[in-house]
């Protein structure tokens, strides 16, 4: 067990414990994400870029989106709600809230996933007009299978929220390694009998194992299934979750907006943006996971017991993550071109393509300091129950993304779209910070 897992139960993790937890989560998240590259290598070896792979990735995209939007926002909301329910050592109360929350997550995801599968024959031809009828049928069949994957993924997130609230960070960070490995192994072993659907069944088996391991760990910590949740606790959870769900939904649209606006620049622009964004987004995912999970329990405890300490450490953390992120931007600028050349420059991908994609990557990397700050600020606003600030900040981000994309692409083309992310996130962070400052002012006692 890692040092992060052994954090004391006393209130208020110190900054060194948070840093150790963040480092542990980052390292394990990189390991977990690396298994996806193994899966991609197996798929490429067996299928190349054929229609079966197209069908699978379409069937994978929608359930993954659902899990990230529904369960990802739930996890942020659940941790402070669980800690509030557990105050005074009442783990039975927290268990009831965790059970009800997991049931709601599973139900929402299941309903949405079933609708996605049921209506796939209607919307997939419009989304992917170049796909054959056979590919659409195959994607639809796999969407039904992947509905189970989405539900299991939601339960794994819910279990991860419980472990994170208990400061058991390592297992939720490394458990996602199981799903890509199960997919690769099932494809290798059962391709002849299941075809490309082996990937979908592998995703179900992998997330089932992930959910079972995480939920079993929560059970060992004393969390037992219970349904007698108090209305006040459930209302508190839903009140926290609603704004976060809306904000996550809005922010998830920024990447789609980038792609749609890049398509207006002509052939090759959207693909250049996609290639350049892929590495940056992978890095941002690690940053989000490490920062967000490591600070959330400490912030939640501070919000319950000592809000003044939360404001103080938030300022320190903002300065620290911004200063640490700036060298990351410099490294991206220095290494973008050789890295892109190493990964992509072969066959139809020319040296000129490498230069453009490297510029896109460098431009996207400039968002790292502001993005890291927003990750922390969203968690602080969530634990302080500032439900009105978070969706407003997300809406500001969307509006700025559209406006700055339109402006910057006039001067710098597709590179301008990537460059616009930095000021959009900077303003988003400022909106969140001002909202938190206003809350701090309201909490200060007035002097008569």
TrEMBL record:
InterPro entries: MurJ
Keywords: Cell membrane, Cell shape, Membrane, Peptidoglycan synthesis, Transmembrane, Transmembrane helix
Any one GO BP annotation for this protein: regulation of cell shape
Major localization listed first in the record, in broad terms: membrane
Coiled-coil boundaries: none
Transmembrane annotation, as ranges: 55-84, 96-123, 143-163, 170-190, 196-218, 238-257, 277-296, 317-336, 356-377, 389-408, 414-436
Localization, UniProt: Cell membrane
Pfam families per UniProt: MurJ
Topology with respect to the bilayer: Multi-pass membrane protein
GO CC list: plasma membrane
Similarity-based family: Belongs to the MurJ/MviN family.
Cross-referenced PANTHER family: LIPID II FLIPPASE MURJ-RELATED
Biological role: Involved in peptidoglycan biosynthesis. Transports lipid-linked peptidoglycan precursors from the inner to the outer leaflet of the cytoplasmic membrane.
Protein's UniProt name: Putative peptidoglycan lipid II flippase
């Amino acid at each position: 067990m890692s040092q992060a897992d052994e954090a004391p139960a006393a209130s208020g993790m110190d900054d060194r414990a948070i840093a150790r937890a963040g480092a542990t989560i980052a390292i394990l998240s990189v390991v977990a994400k690396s298994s996806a590259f193994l899966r991609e290598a197996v798929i490429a070896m067996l299928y190349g870029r054929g229609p079966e792979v197209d069908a699978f990735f379409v069937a994978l995209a929608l359930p993954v989106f659902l899990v990230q939007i529904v369960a990802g926002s739930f996890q942020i909301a659940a941790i402070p709600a669980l800690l509030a329910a557990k105050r005074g050592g009442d783990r039975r109360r927290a268990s009831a809230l965790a059970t009800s929350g997991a049931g709601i997550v599973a139900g929402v995801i299941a309903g949405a996933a079933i609708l996605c599968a049921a209506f796939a024959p209607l919307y997939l031809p419009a989304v992917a007009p170049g796909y054959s009828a056979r590919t659409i049928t195959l994607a639809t069949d796999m969407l039904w299978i992947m509905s189970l994957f989405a539900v299991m993924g939601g339960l794994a997130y819910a279990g991860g929220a419980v472990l994170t609230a208990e400061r058991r960070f390592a297992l939720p960070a490394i458990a996602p390694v199981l799903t890509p490995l199960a997919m690769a192994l099932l494809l290798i072993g059962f391709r002849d009998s299941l075809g490309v659907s082996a990937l979908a069944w592998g995703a179900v088996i992998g997330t089932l194992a992930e959910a079972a391991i995480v939920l079993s760990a929560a059970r060992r910590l004393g969390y037992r299934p219970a349904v007698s949740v108090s209305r006040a606790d459930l209302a508190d959870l839903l009140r926290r979750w609603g704004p976060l769900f809306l904000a996550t939904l809005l922010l998830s649209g920024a990447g789609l907006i980038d792609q749609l606006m890049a398509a207006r620049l002509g052939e090759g622009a959207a693909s250049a943006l996609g290639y350049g964004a892929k590495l940056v987004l992978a890095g941002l995912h690690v940053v989000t996971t490490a920062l967000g999970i490591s600070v959330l329990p400490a912030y939640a405890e501070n919000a319950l017991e000592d809000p003044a300490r939360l404001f103080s450490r938030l300022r320190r953390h903002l300065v620290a993550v911004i200063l640490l992120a700036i060298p990351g931007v410099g490294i991206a600028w220095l290494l973008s071109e050789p890295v892109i050349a190493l990964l992509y420059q072969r066959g139809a991908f020319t040296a000129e393509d490498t230069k453009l994609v490297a510029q896109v990557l460098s431009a996207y990397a400039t968002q790292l300091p502001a993005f890291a700050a927003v990750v922390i600020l969203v968690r602080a606003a969530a634990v302080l129950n500032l439900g009105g600030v978070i969706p407003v900040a997300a809406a500001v981000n969307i509006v700025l993304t559209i406006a700055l994309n339109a402006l910057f692409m006039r001067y710098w083309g597709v590179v301008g779209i990537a460059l616009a992310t930095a000021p959009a996130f900077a303003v988003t962070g400022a909106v969140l910070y001002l909202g938190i400052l206003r809350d701090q002012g309201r909490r200060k006692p007035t002097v008569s």
